[in-house]
Design a protein that fits this description.
heterodimer; A: 292 residues; alpha/beta; Rossmann fold; five-stranded parallel β-sheet; two-stranded antiparallel ribbon; 12 helices; 12% strand; B: 62 residues; mainly beta; Ubiquitin-like (UB roll); five-stranded mixed β-sheet
């Protein structure tokens, strides 16, 4: 039922599922879980995080690690509210603890506020994705720390990783490229793992369909007309023409001996959260949002 | 021959595969999975006259 063009191999449903599970297990073997682990799983309700939650749940049962699903509500009406419903139904079925943290409650600001005329007039070059990503990572780390998590698992897939590498190349952003590899515990940052990072996006969808894993398939209304979407199209076009492109991009990134970003993690002077400078990026952007 | 793609009729050459049909429809095969009779089929599957295909969107989220 599935053809891997880069291998020239066909897979039945059971074998494809096994391939996805094997990739997950191999990645998790780099950071094995124990009964002392508390894993905060970032779950948005989309296909990646719902498949991740399913697989983490199966692993947690074997290792007796504890799971907590954390959803960050950016306040995007008609999108996030619907995906949160999907998460609530699924975590209830799995009997996994679930916490929702919202931009509105934590930051007194939502992504929908950015579409308001007064904001657009004040910040004509402000992109929702820039703010969203920074705030989301901050709140996920904070919520995970408050839940006593030892690790944060996120559902980034092969396509996401390949796109991020290419975006950093296009921008010439070596620092951000270094930070892509996840991070170890330091200064209040909970170690982040990406167990699905070698699984193509298509195979995650196939796995969800084959295994009856529900997910919300909507697209964020702010995700169009931005750099990532353009890079996504280019990388998909290259993959269609030259199968294996995405994997090779990631392998290339892995071969570049990029050292971990040096520098101490401080506490942001405004919010106290981990920061590479005196004021964290989230507070810097929040200052833009709140300025008159 | 004629097939139905997400409810819309389209003409493709006899002996076409799923991938060929997606090319005619200007859809990148990386962006969809394809079902025929509610079963996922690979992109190199040969199509027959009257086949009805459902496309599953791969790209979602933010």
């Amino acid at each position: 039922m599935y053809f891997r063009a880069n291998e020239g191999s066909h897979y039945c449903g059971a074998c494809l599922s096994e391939q996805v599970e094997r990739s997950f297990s191999k990645e998790m073997s780099r950071t094995p879980l124990s009964k002392d682990d508390v894993v905060a799983v970032g779950v948005s309700g989309g296909k990646d995080s719902m498949v991740l939650l399913h697989l983490m749940n199966e692993l947690a049962k074997k290792t007796r690690a504890k799971l907590i699903a954390i959803t960050v509500d950016e306040g995007i009406e008609g999108y996030r509210d619907k995906s949160i419903d999907a998460v609530r139904n699924f975590v209830s079925k799995l009997s996994v603890e679930h916490r929702v943290v919202s931009f509105k409650n934590e930051l007194d600001f939502s992504i929908d506020d950015m579409s308001e005329k007064t904001f657009v007039e004040r910040h004509p070059s402000g992109k929702a994705c820039t703010y969203c990503g920074v705030f989301r990572r901050k709140l996920l780390n904070k919520a995970a720390r408050e839940a006593g998590a030892t690790k944060i698992a996120v559902g980034h897939n092969l396509d996401d990783e390949a796109q991020s590498v290419m975006m950093n190349v296009i921008r010439g952003d070596v620092i951000r490229m270094k930070r892509m590899g996840g991070h170890t515990k330091k200064g209040g940052l909970i170690p982040r793992i990406k167990p699905l990072k070698n699984v193509p996006e298509k195979e995650i969808v196939a796995y969800a369909l084959l295994n009856g894993i529900p997910y919300f398939d909507g697209e964020c209304p702010n995700s169009f007309n931005n750099v990532r979407r353009d890079v996504q199209t280019i990388v998909n076009d290259l993959e269609a023409k030259y199968p294996g492109t995405k994997s090779q991009i990631i392998k290339f990134y892995g071969k570049i001996r990029i050292e971990e970003v040096k520098g101490e993690i401080q506490s942001c002077i405004k919010c106290g959260e981990p920061s590479s400078s005196s004021t964290c990026k989230a507070c810097e952007l929040l200052g833009n949002v709140k300025s008159k | 021959m004629e097939i139905i793609l997400n409810g819309k009729k389209m003409e493709i050459l006899a002996g076409s595969t799923v991938s060929d049909a997606l090319t005619v429809a200007k859809i990148n095969p990386e962006t969809v999975l394809v079902k025929r009779n509610k079963t996922l089929i690979p992109h190199d599957e040969l199509l027959g006259d009257g086949d009805s295909l459902e496309l599953i969107n791969v790209i979602s989220g933010g």
